[in-house]
Amino acid sequence: MFAEERRQAILELMQQHGRVEVADLCSRFDVTGATIRADLQMLADQGLVVRTHGGALPFGAGLYELSLIRRRQLQTTQKARIAQEAATLIDDGEAVFIDSSSTALAIVEHIRHRRDLTVVTNSLVVAQELLGLPNVTVVMPGGTLHHDTVSLIGVSGLALLERYHVAKGFFGAHGLTIEDGLTDVSEAEAQVKRSLAGMCRQAVIVADATKWGRVGVASFARVQDVHRVITDRAAPFDMVQRVRGLGVQVALV
Fold first, then answer.
1. pTM over 0.85
2. Is residue 120 domain-shared with residue 28, that is, in the same domain?
């Protein structure tokens, strides 16, 4: 059986049983665990399944708003490249905003050694990742804990940030279209991003190719209102050209 045939069979089994386990698939297809895990990662990268410990679940309506741990497992290679490129825009001595998206979270790994950096974030995970670094000051607005994104939402606590000159803000998005702009999975998340994008001198969108052409529940910015989009080379060419036509820089990595 060819790899593509096996992956299609895995999807069919998942539809029948609701989930699949690596051990069962190894036995069924007589292949190694490494082969099955590679199959599941390929399907996850295509947005067809969500990886779990020891197996996978179907990517469906019930998983519309993915928990952070599951979202971090999607498009991992692309997110790493996007994050590395985004980090090159961050200079010593700046104040930057990093949101609660899994792609923005990946930026943190590349800025640990920046000097005199101030990171504004509503993400508890970002704050935790930067904990204990004497060269980085972390500022968090108040709000209500949102469990799926492990972030603080609500705009009542954002007044604190008015004293900071935030040079750049890095925002993930559930979707990006010319008509609907940048969208997220809930109005509450979008409301926070909408306010913070307006506070940043430059708004940078970090979004892999799967987000292009997709529309979330609520918009937080028009495409022409952001300064740069960092995405991967699989982003649709026609849409990339249209975004560039609006005066927005698009980096393909």
1. no
2. no
